Fold each of these.
Amino acid sequence: ATAPASWDKPLEGKVAVVTGAARGIGATIAEVFARDGATVIVADIPAAGEALSETANKVGATALALDVTAPDAAEKLAEFATQRFGGIDIVVHNAGITRDKLLANMDEGRWNSVLNVNLAAPHRITEGLVAKGALRSGGRVIDVSSIAGIAGNRGQTNYGASKAGVIGMVNAEAPKLAEKNITINAVAPGFIETAMTAAIPLATREGGRLLSSLLQGGQTVDVAETIAYFASPASNAVNGNIVRVCGQAMI
Ligand code: NAI
C-alpha cells in the first residue's frame, strides 16, 4: 500500500464518539479528533450538561446526554449518530469513575458502580453498536484502561479490577471485531492531571506524580494524541494492543 498524500486531516470523513467528554481527558480527545478533521459527538451524563455544551461549542462537536450505564445506551447512541451523521467510525470508551476505599471498607455499591461504568458499559456499548450495524467497517474501538489495572493501586481494588478487565476485554474482542474489519486497542494512562486525580489525597497524588521519571503528572493531551493514533489510518494494522502512557515511568 502507498502512504496517504497528506496527513493534514487524517480523520476527515470519520464520525467519532467520545464518552465522558465534558471535561478532562475526554474533552481533549474531542479537541484532537476535531483538529484531525473528524465529525465529533461528545457524550456525558445528563448532570454534566453545561460543561458538555461548553466542550461541544469549544471544539465544534455535537453534544449527547448519555449515561453509558443505561441499558439502552448503545441503542440511543446508534440512533443519534445514524440519524445525524449516517453511522459511527470511531468510538472511545473514555467515561470512567473512581470510588476509592481501602479493602475492608470496599462495599458492594462502590464495587458495582465502578465495574459498571468502567468495564460493563464499554462492553455493552461496543457489542450493541456492532449488532445494530452502527459501527461501520473500518471502524475503531478505543478503550481507556489505566496503570492501576497493570500495577495496582492502594484503595483501588474496584478501579484496578475494572481497568485490568478492560485489558482482558480488548484481548478477547480483538479477533472477533477483526472479522467485521473493526480494530480495538486501549491506552493505559499513568497519573494525568485532571479533576479525577485532583480528588486523590495529597500524599497519594504526589506519589502518583513521582512514579513518572518526568517527576510530574502527564497532561490530557499526552493520552489524547495516543488515542488519535489508534483512530487514524497510521494504525490500520494495529489490533488488540495496550499502550501505556505513563511519562517515562518503568511500570
Ligand atoms: P474526569 O473525572 O475528569 O472525567 C470523566 C468524565 O466521565 C466526566 O465528565 C464524567 O461526568 C464522565 N462520566 C462518569 N460517569 C459517566 C457515565 N455513567 N456516563 C457517561 N459519562 C460519565 O476523569 P479523567 O481523569 O478525564 O479520566 C478519563 C478516563 O481516563 C477514565 O476512564 C479514567 O479512569 C481514565 N484514566 C485517568 C487517569 C488519570 O490520571 N486522570 C489515569 C488512568 C486512566
Amino acid sequence: MQQQDKVWIFDTTLRDGEQALKASLTEDDKVQLAHTISRLNVDVMEVGFPVSSPADFRSVQRIATEVKGPIICGLARSVAKDIEACGDALRAAQQSRIHTFIATSPLHLEHKLRMSLDDATAMAVKSIKLARNYTDDVEFSCEDAGRTPHWDLCKIVEQAINAGASTINLPDTVGFVTPDEYAAMIRHLMNNVPNIDKARLSVHCHNDLGLAVANSVAAVQAGARQIECTINGIGERAGNCSLEEVAMIMKMRKDHLNVYTDIKSEEIYRASRQVAKICNMPVQPNKAIVGENAFAHSSGIHQDGVLKAQNTYEIMSPESVGVPSNQLNMTSRSGRHVIEHRLEELGYQKSDYDMDSLYQSFVALADQKGTVYDYDLEAMIYFNQINDKD
Ligand code: KIV
Ligand code: ZN
C-alpha cells in the first residue's frame, strides 16, 4: 500500500474568520476559542494580525503565552512594522510562525499596490529575512495567487524560499478558480520552481463560488500539504474553506486520497457550537458535518434503513464528529418501524398501544403540524387508551 502523507491543518478562525464578524471578539473570547481550537489538534493556529490594533496585539500575545500545542501564528504584510509587531506579539509562544504576504496578481499590483512584480518580490524577500530574525518558521503568501500568471508565481516563490520561507501559501483570495485550475497551479509550481522541495505548499481558499472545499481537496490531490481553513467556514464575504468538512473528507476518504490529518474529529461539534455562539454566527441547518440536519433522517424509507443498519444512509457516525446521536424526525413520511423504535426508547411496550389506531392518529397529526414530538406520541397513546375503554 502507498504510504499516506500528512496534510497540515492551519486554522485561521481567529484571523480570517474573525475579520468577517460584525462585532470584534473580546480578548477573553479569543483565548477561550484558541483553547477549543487547540483541542482539535490543529497543526497551526493563526490568531490575529498584531499590527492592526493594540487589542489584536494583546490577544495574540495572550494566546502565545497561554495556549500550548499548535504552532501559534500571526499575520503581517510585507513591511517591517508588521513583521516586528508580529514577532513581538508571538515572543512567548512555544512554537511560533510569522505569516507574511503580498499581492502578486496584475490586478492587485497595478491598482492596489501600484508596483511591479519585481518590487513586490523585493519587499517579500526583505520581510521574510526580517521575520527569520524572530522565528525559523516563516510562511509566505502570494495574495490573489488564483489570478496570478503561473510563471509570475514561480519567480516570486523561488525567491521567497531562498530568503527563508518554509511554507508557501497560494490563496484563492477571491474564490474565483475552479478545482482543475487550482490543481494545475499547484502542479505548475511543483514542476517549475527549482527549490520547491524545501517548502510545504499550502492552500487558502475563499468560498465566493462555493468551491473552497473542493478547491482545497483538488490542491491536496495535486500535492499541496497544508490547508488553511476556519471552523464553520466563517471568513471574509462567503467565508473560507471549512475545517470540519476538509478534516472529515480526509478521514472518510483517506484511502482514496492517500492522505491524513491529525485532527481529533470527536472535538468538531463542540468547536463548531462554540464558534457559532461566541461569534454570533448561527450554522445553517443543512451544513455538512455540523448542521442541525447533518445526522437527522426524515424519510420513512431512510429511517427504516438506518434502524436496520446505520450505514445504509449514514456515511459517518454522529459520534465520530462529537454529535451525541443521530435523529429520526417523526413526520408524515415516518413509518411504523420508527414509531415503535421511539416508543421503545421512551419505555413503552407493544402491549401498551394498538399500532393501527396509533398510526392513524399519528399520520393525521403529522399532516397538520409537520413534526410529531415525543409528548404528542405519549398523548396519542393516552387518548387511544381512554377511547378503547369507552
Ligand atoms: O485570502 C487571502 O489572500 C488571505 C491572505 C492574507 C493569506 O487571507
Ligand atoms: Zn483569506
